[in-house]
Amino acid sequence: MSRPLSQEFTKGFSKTNPVFVLLLGLCPTLAVTTTVSNAVGMAVAATFVLVGSNVIISLARDIIPPKVRIPCFIVVIATFVTIVELVMQAYAPPLYKSLGIFVPLIVVNCIILGRAEAFASKNSVGASTLDGLGMGVGFAWALLLLATVREVLGNGTFLGYQLVPGFRPALIMILPPGAFLSLGLMLGWINWRRMRRERRHAGRRTILDIRTRTGVGRAALRTDDGEIGR
Question: Does the predicted model carry a pTM greater than 0.90?
Fold first, then answer.
């Protein structure tokens, strides 16, 4: 049974978030989140490539031979990455220089290739578009959350603007150890909340089962008493 189209869009926010749940695309996530501006640039680029490649692959899913589907997917993805790279070079040279090698490396981003193989090649254009957009937005908010923490604590700034005069930033937060530390703490907090929610739901189901069984037992006793009385 297929899920509603709205769920194809919203699933990337929490249930199948590419960074916090699926743990995909961690290389650019850790590398470019030193500043919020870098995170925004990478998020927009990855979302554009995700949506574009999903649409084209979904349109061509019936004519791509199964044995060469992965090379075909990579060619489609590389086309959109080239478009992003050329546009960024022309209109945002500082951002392109700041992101560096991680712009062309979008070609081999596991999120994009994974959605092409697992979803776009098996579903309609509409569903694939919403899937790519939802996954892109989920990737974007993960990048923005991590970049905000790292820039504020590591530089004392947000989008380059100083927040608190005299604040002494923790340099480690904009270095690789700070990236791993920040991501690890976020993953731990998210998993703790998920496990707590699952335990709460499991407890509620247990209580409902007990009440249901108790109600059935009482009904049986009432029936038996009535039969005995008669």
Answer: no
